[in-house]
Design goal:
- By secondary structure, the protein is an alpha/beta fold.
- The chain has helices at 12-30, 44-52, 105-116, 174-181, and strands at residues 5-10, 35-41, 59-67, 79-82, 93-101, 121-129, 142-146, 152-153, 169-172.
């Protein structure tokens, strides 16, 4: 698995420092008010689990299913699989968390859906921000790191369901996904 990584972009220690910094920013924003942290499955699980332990505020946790990549490397049609129940959304302040903000389509669609379902406020938080790929007008309210337009894996980010368990973020060797694309 490690042989498939071209370069380590963000080390485990750098991730921990980013989580502490972002946790402090979120704590300051909410000022002790309760909110619901909603993680986008599956990518946000690792990030969310570590980040919420760095937030000094009362919060509830919920999850939403959304997918757009399938087996490939390019964004496909967005599928919204399930949402938290109404009591976790209506009138609540929501912090929507995802592993990466790429084109912005997923986060934008989810934010709109939560507002339509009655959320009082929806803020966004991402582990990685890739602004060079943005296809819609969407910026994260909180982010840990910005990355260049590379195919990144690790710390929750995957390629074809693999590499999520790496403790760092790395650039996947192009030969790995090019070989799959030619099949």
């Amino acid at each position: 698995m490690h042989n498939d990584i071209d370069t380590i972009l963000i080390s485990t220690d750098e991730i921990q420092a980013g989580l502490i910094r972002t946790g402090k920013e979120i704590t300051a924003y909410y000022g002790g008010d309760e909110f619901t942290a909603v993680g986008v499955l599956k990518g946000a699980v690792v990030f969310m689990a570590d980040l919420v332990r760095n937030i000094d505020a009362h919060l509830e946790m919920a999850f939403v299913g959304a997918s757009s990549y399938r087996e490939g490397t390019t964004s496909g049609k967005l599928e919204l699989n399930f949402f938290p129940h109404e009591g976790e959304i209506k009138g609540r302040r929501i912090l929507l968390m995802d592993d990466i903000l790429d084109t912005g389509r997923t986060m934008s669609a989810l934010k709109a859906e939560f507002l339509e379902r009655g959320a009082a406020e929806v803020k966004t938080c991402v582990f990685l921000d890739k602004p060079s790929r943005r296809a819609v007008d969407m910026e994260a309210d909180f982010r840990c790191f910005e990355v260049d337009d590379l195919f990144v894996v690790g710390y929750g980010l995957d390629y074809a369901g693999r590499y999520r368990n790496l403790p760092f973020v790395g650039a996947l060797k192009s030969a790995v996904y090019e070989a799959a694309a030619s099949c």
